[in-house]
Amino acid sequence: MSDTLICVLCCHNFHPDLLAAAQEEGWSDVQVMAYPVRCGRPAMRWEELEPLLLPGTSGVVILGRACLTGLDAPPDHWPMTRIDRQAECFHLVAGKTLVAEAISRGAYLITPTWLATWPDHLASMGFQSDQAGEFFHDFARELLLLDTAILPDADDRLREFGAAVRLPVRRLAVGLDYTRLLLQRAVNGLRWETERQRARQKELRQTRDMADLSAAMDFLGRLVLLKDEPEAIAAIEEMFRMLFAPTEFHFAGWVDGAWQSMDRIPPALQEQIRQLHREWAWTRSGEGFLLRLDRAGHTVGTIAIDHLAFPHFRERYLDTARSLLGICTLVIENARTLQRIKWTEAALRQATNTLLQESEIRFEATFEQAAVGIALVSPEGRWLRVNRKLCQIVGYDHDALLNLTFQEITHPEDLDTDLDYVQRMLARQIENYAMEKRYFRRDGSVVWINLTVSLVWKADTTPDYFIAVIEEIQARKEAEAALRESGENLREARRLAGLGDWKWDLRTDTHTWSEEIYRLYGRDPALPPASYPEVRSYFTPESWTSMAAAIEQSMATGKPYVCDAEVIPGDGGPHRWITTRGESLYDADGRILMLRGTVQDITERKHAEEEIRLLNAELEQRVQQRTAELEAVNQELKEFVYVASHDLQEPLRTMNSYAEFLREDVGEATLNESAQEDLRFITDAAKRMQTLVWDLLAYSRSGRLEVRHRPVALNDCLAAVQENLQTSMVESHASVTWEDLPTVRGEATSLISVFQNLIGNGIKFRRPGVDPILRVEAEANGALWVIRVRDNGIGMEGKYLEQIFQPFKRLHSKKEYPGTGLGLAIVRKIVERHGGVIQVESTPGHGSLFTLTLPAWIGQNQNPPDREAVP
């Protein structure tokens, strides 16, 4: 063992990592010791650490963070001690940037040592392995192992730990390089302090070198602050030139097994440097010396000083230089360590950034594609970020929802409870909460959701934002309501239906009755159910005989039975009728285990059947009587209509005839204008009356129309209508068009009347100066044809569309448009007698559209349409 022994004290959780790093360095004078994990509770004391020091310890390095809380300056009797406090414990294995970014992303950092005994750690925290999930979910999104590769089964243990706390896991290979660099810096810092003390002691012993050493110490103070190797070498050169005033100063660095900067050194010195295997040697000129910089068997480089200004002081200069050699070595090694730390941090930062970008992409995909709504909400309640599912649940688009608060869309009956939870969480009384509540959707409807909320805090302990998970449960709520209603309806239905159920367990000969059976049998509910032989007392003999036979047959054949029976209630109430049903249940060997069934009260049905039988007989007699009376009245009505029409038309014909006689006898030329006007009034009134009588007869006949099931070709009907209205069409310049109209089932004459009325109205109710244009179209609709008759006439207002089909309902005066007001009423009667309907759509000044349905002729093997029936 060397003359120095450095004890490195560290937390138990990082001891294996630091020990492995120290072993890779190959230090023979460094021992890594572990102190128990304290995390600052209670404060660490020097008395607890002192037993860890090995005999002969010349320096102590203490590494950690929370465990070192309370440690001040070490006692006076302690060896040289350096306390290296980290901002985070994890800085012992990873850079500050990497650790800070991982924690800010919600990672829970662990080391291999901690992972190796994670169940013990959870137990020390007061959790079982399956109970820590909620605790970890409150502040972490994932588990991140800072893997230094010292735990062989790290993958398996990490998966087990992640499954226990229900968090995703990730490994980040940090290696031991960072720990080695950190350990080198801490140990070298202590060594530097030790060397510095030795140099001071030597300075005291060698008063003659006081001036030089004092100057050297000033440079050493500057060297400690240097973090760049070229600057450190330049400062060392400046120090040596000031101390020894050499003509030549050279430094050759040994890096990764090769000499650096040798091309700047004279060849003679290059050869000496390569051949130097001990601590120092004189130069070949004899006016200088070479110094080898070593640390724990590792070569750092070689300093060459030649052609001293005062060569006779070379021995003295050599002693001084050798006293500074250790510090120079530490300064250069420290600069290299800092550079490697920077490189390592840069590499780790780049790897971390890559991982963070990948993590962000995965988070974004998870956030947007989640099957539940997810949102980030400000402490005031404003939506900060929402996913697509939440927008679908509440019916708002993304931007519209971000302009609202959750209070604005929460149902008033749920808002107070929700806000109370929020206040309790902000007061740190609870860590999260869940509740069922209602939101108002954008269309005003209400949707039930299940809400789970947690709160994220800032580093300064102020609230940052809420994380809300929203699951739609509208279907479940509706199902629960329907289920409750169904259960209530079932119970009420069983009561109203008088339905009871029973069981007979043949293995134990026990009977089970529902409450309704007790009521039907009139048995005291306090008594047990009646046994099979005993129950016969509740039935008439005839009913019991038939029911017992049915039960015996069911037990023999295994088939269910149904039979009606008359009940004699045990409480003396009136007899009742029931329908009893039953079936047998068997075991695997075919033995009957149980009989079960139902009993339903059918007393009212029995009474109703008897009443219906009597009423049917009475009704049959009354129907026959009424039918005879209606037939007699109908016959009288027919005779009256024909007689009335004849008697009404005869005076009208007489009025017309005598008006013509009067005009011929007197002479139209001798009649004054007033008399001629009177005769015209008489003649026109008689004609209108005659038209009214004809229309009344047509209306009466349309109501009694018996439609024959004959095929009618509508093309032929339209051709007949066009021929009948030829004069009106020529006078009004009207046109009627149609294409391939179908064959329907009905009466040809009646359908001609329908289309003649509709087309005639289209011609009559035309707009001034506009030629009437009418179009007839047809469209199939199952077993019906939809016929549309469109005109470009005067049209009508919507409030009159239903009135025009009523008898005598006119929208215009007789002077404007003559007629009796019965045409469309007759059309409706005919269409309805054919089993169809008629409707109208109209716009004033743009015409009307009449739509009617007629049954299609579907008899493929029937005779073709009867064209001779079309006049």
Topology:
Blueprint lengths: L5 E6 L3 H11 L4 E6 L10 H4 L9 E6 L15 E6 L10 H9 L2 E4 L1 H5 L1 H7 L8 H5 L4 E6 L6 H12 L3 E5 L3 H29 L4 H16 L3 H16 L1 E10 L2 E3 L6 H9 L4 E3 L6 E7 L2 E11 L5 H56 L3 E5 L5 E4 L1 H7 L3 H5 L3 H4 L2 H15 L5 E9 L5 E12 L5 E10 L1 H24 L1 E7 L4 E4 L1 H7 L19 H17 L3 E7 L8 E11 L5 E10 L1 H64 L6 H31 L6 E4 H11 L1 H7 L2 E4 L4 E4 L1 H17 L8 E9 L2 E8 L31 H11 L4 E6 L3 E9 L16
Parallel strand pairs: 1-2, 1-3, 3-4, 5-6, 6-7, 24-26
Antiparallel strand pairs: 8-9, 8-12, 10-11, 11-12, 13-14, 13-17, 15-16, 16-17, 18-19, 18-22, 20-21, 21-22, 23-25, 26-27, 27-29, 28-29
Helix pairs in contact: 1-8, 3-12, 8-9, 8-12, 9-10, 9-12, 10-12, 20-21, 21-25, 22-24, 24-25
Keywords:
alpha+beta, disordered C terminus, 46% helix, 25 helices, 871 residues, 5-stranded antiparallel sheet
Brief summary of the model shown:
This protein is α+β, with helices and mostly antiparallel strands and 871 residues long. The protein is built from 25 helices and 29 strands.
